[in-house]
C-alpha cells in the first residue's frame, strides 16, 4: 500500500476554491451556458448596440443605463453594455444589477479576488 498523503481538492490557493461566504452561482436557464454565450459572441451579432462605433460615456449617460433591459457597467474606465449577458452571468442578474449604471470596478475586484483565496 502506498503512503500517499491525502490531498484536498481543489488545492488550497486554487482558483477553483471558493472562500467561506464567497461567490454564489445561480442555475441558468436552458440555452444560457458558457458555451452558449461563446457561440453568441462569435455569431457576428452586434451585442454592444452601437454598430461598431466607439463613444465617450459620461457619468450622467452611464447612470441612465441602470435597468435589466438596458444595463451598462464601467470597469476600470471602460463601459460595457452587459444587457445581452444578463441571462448568462453565473452569479445571476441580481449580481450584475449591483453595479448597473455605475462604476463597478470595486465590486468586480471583490468578487474576483474572493474566488482566488
Please tell me about this protein's structure:
The protein has 117 residues and is α+β, with helices and mostly antiparallel strands. The chain has a domain at 34-46 and 59-114: Flavocytochrome B2, Chain A, domain 1 (Roll), CATH 3.10.120.10. Helices cover 25% and strands 10% of the residues. The protein has helices at 34-41, 59-64, 93-97, 105-114, and strands at 66-67, 70-75, 78-81. The protein has a 3-stranded antiparallel sheet. The longest helix has 10 residues, at 105-114. The chain is globular. GO terms for molecular function: cytochrome-b5 reductase activity, acting on NAD(P)H; heme binding; metal ion binding. Residues 1-27 are annotated as: Disordered.
Multimeric organization: single chain
Side by side, the strands of the main sheet go: 1-2-3
On the 0-100 scale, what is the average pLDDT? 83
Task: Give the number of helices.
Answer: 4
CATH H-level name of the domain at 34-46 and 59-114... which superfamily?
Cytochrome b5-like heme/steroid binding domain
Cα end-to-end separation: 34 Å
SSE string, helices as H and strands as E: HHEEEHH
Keywords:
metal-binding; Flavocytochrome B2, Chain A, domain 1; alpha+beta; 117 residues; Cyt_B5-like_heme/steroid_sf; heme
Question: TL;DR of this structure?
Answer:
One of its GO terms (molecular function) is heme binding. The protein is α+β, with helices and mostly antiparallel strands and 117 residues long. The chain has helices at 34-41, 59-64, 93-97, 105-114, and strands at 66-67, 70-75, 78-81.
Amino acid at each position: 500500500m502506498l503512503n500517499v498523503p491525502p490531498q484536498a481538492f481543489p488545492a488550497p490557493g486554487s482558483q477553483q476554491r471558493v472562500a467561506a461566504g464567497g461567490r454564489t452561482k445561480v442555475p441558468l436557464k436552458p440555452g444560457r451556458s458558457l458555451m452558449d454565450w461563446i457561440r453568441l459572441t462569435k455569431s457576428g451579432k452586434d451585442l454592444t448596440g452601437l454598430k461598431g462605433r466607439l463613444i465617450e460615456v459620461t457619468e450622467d449617460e452611464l447612470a441612465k443605463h441602470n435597468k435589466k433591459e438596458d444595463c451598462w457597467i464601467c470597469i476600470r474606465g471602460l463601459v460595457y453594455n452587459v444587457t445581452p449577458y444578463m441571462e448568462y452571468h453565473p452569479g445571476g442578474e441580481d449580481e450584475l444589477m449591483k453595479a448597473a449604471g455605475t462604476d463597478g470596478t470595486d465590486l468586480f475586484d471583490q468578487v474576483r479576488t474572493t474566488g482566488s483565496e
